[in-house]
Amino acid sequence: MLFLYLDLWYGKIAIVVRRVFVLSRLRGRSRIVFFKKLTGWRPEHKAQKKKAWQTNTKSVLCLSMISQRVDTTIVLPGIASAHSHAFQRALRGRTQALSQQDESFWSWRSLMYRFASKLDPQSMYTLCRYAFAELALNGVTAVGEFHYLHHDPSGQPYSNRTEMAEMAIRAAQDIGIRIALLRVVYQRGGQHQSLDPVQKRFADADLDDVFEDIAALKKQFSGDESVQIGLAPHSVRAVPQSSLLDIASFLRAQGDAVPVHAHVSEQEAENKACYEEYACSPVEVFADAGLLGPHFCAVHATHLSSTDIKLLADSKSIVCLCRGTERDLGDGLPLVRELCEAKIPICFGADSHAISDPFEEARAAELDERSRLKRRQVALDGQALLRASSEHGYQALGMHSKYDEDRVVLSANDPALVSDEQTPLDDLVMFSATARAVRDVVVGKKKIVENGILAGFETIKAEYQKLLRKLVMQ
Fold it and tell me: What is the pTM of this model?
């Protein structure tokens, strides 16, 4: 009996070897026909495989890399930049000079405020359009715009209360990328502090005005699947706990899920002030208000405790890291390994647009963590980084069903990506690619970047540069 079993076993191996040998000798269509006969492939299998890609990401992740080679290209799903202040793109290169002062996030914020005080609806559109054009050229298909420039510089609402928000949305529509407009709630200058004069244009004393703005925006853009409207209590620094409770009540009354984003524990000073006011951390304040959950995105989450991480994990909340900006501002290093071990979904954002390269934003999360821990390969491999950039980013924007409808096509001949077929593709892309490799960008059925060209970019750039000159002169 044993000999019969061994004979059958070796016989099966011989059959497999012969079939592999035959397959290796065939070329072109003959090889395809033999493969179909060998595997029992039928035309409906192709449709079933496509459906699996569209509806069940886990099945794809288990079977293959997320990125795929197609001829001389590498095809990725859509990529989201989940946290953006597009108007801050105009500050790039203007805040880097060495100074005798003790420079920090807070001194940078003062410079940003002075710039923000000069903007009107038209300049908002011009700045957003250029920032979104750069993101698209760099491979971004969806953006989360954390929008807090609501009113005129004196704090008076425009005759059309949502005009500034509409300018940001229109800019994204004109470029062709998806946008989640995250309407910010801002009510105070800090714990027990009144508003700074510049902050008055961010603020609404009455939350009902905020809720009406959100309802108006949702109604206006309800017919556009590329637009999502969300709500963003700026931070525990800017929104008191009583208002957070009212926001949670409003969200529960909404029939559909609304993405909720907030700055969380970006600065150690923020944590200290929160403990002084509430005797707990910012994460605990949001948890006590009932805001944590699968639709809540904690932006930055740089200085978290083990309790904070458990609360985020248990509620299935999302974390958005913005390493380009966090590095630029000297915010500190987040606990990336601990977040991953707790199975908290991570995504990435351009934030201040200090850089707008989604590949650099993503790999920085892993590479900075290696520096923190003084080890290699500590939290996120290429597949995890791509999934965070794509699926988790879209999830944070309330667009989870859309990420596999979009495509980013890279040139496999880009100098950074030249390799052989045996190189793990996701690792190659996420640890080596730059925006230079982006060839085509497809959102839905529309190709918005083709062969590295965005239609009308030269005009968009010229108008942006003209505005910068004007703002500097003011």
Answer: 0.85
Count CB-CB contacts under 10 A for residue 454.
19
CA distance 389 to 394: 8
Rounded Cα gap, residues 300 and 266, in angstroms: 5
E-only strand ranges, 359-434: 407-411
Locate tokens 């703002």: which residue?
A: 471
Residue 72 near residue 287, CB atoms below 8 Å: no
Residue linked to tokens 């060495």: 98
Those residues of the chain that have pLDDT short of 70 are: 1-64, 97, 99-108, 473-474
Contacts of 451 (CB under 8 A, 6+ apart): 439, 440
Q: What is the pLDDT of residue 256?
A: 74
Strand extents, DSSP E, 419-463 = 438-443, 446-450, 453-454
185 and 234 in contact (C-beta within 8 Å)?
yes
Collect contacts of 174-177 with beta carbons under 8 A, ≥24 apart. 174/129, 175/129, 175/132, 175/133, 175/136, 175/448, 175/454, 176/136, 176/443, 176/446, 176/448, 177/132, 177/135, 177/136, 177/140, 177/141, 177/142, 177/143, 177/226, 177/443, 177/448
> Residue 124, Cβ neighbours under 10 Å: how many?
22
Question: What are the tokens at 342?
Answer: 């707790």
